Amino acid sequence: MSLHSWPKHHGLERIDFVDKHWAPEDFNILEVWGDPETGMLYYGEDHGCYCCQSPFDGQKREDLVLIDDIKVFARTAREWAMNNYHPNTKVITKLGAMMIRIRTFEERFDIVFDAAELIESLDDEPALNDEN
Question: What does the pLDDT look like over 70-108, one tens digit per residue?
């Protein structure tokens, strides 16, 4: 069972994902999950074609990357967007929404970070434009 389609089967809760389709059958996705028992956060990246597989088919929880520093993850997410989408403000807005959802999840475990500060840091990079 896919991490994307059935996160509870893997003991996880989906926090959010960003996927910009080039064509209806393609995906290129960055997804974040949380462990509802411990508050630990994980992320994964996947790409492919829906006609052949769904996102994260064949991957297990152990294949995901632990998010142990939210600021490092924010930079990683932005780099992923730059490498995959030459991001515009829409992609950065989606990443900002992801950071807010992560914060909401973490608040259940009394782990708090400044989501607004992280969102601002995503917007600070000079390479942003309004294309696409």
Answer: 889 988 998 888 887 765 667 778 888 998 899 889 888
Orientation angle between helical segments 115-123 and 70-85, nearest 10 degrees: 30
pTM of the full structure: 0.81
Asked if the structure places residue 88 within a domain, the reply is yes
What CA–CA distance (Å, rounded) separates 11 from 33? 10
Domain tally for the chain? 1
**Residue 129: inside a domain, yes or no?**
no
24 located within any domain: yes
Domain membership of residue 33 as a residue range: 7-123
Q: How far is CA 56 from CA 13, 20, 67, 115, 122, in A?
A: 14, 16, 18, 27, 26
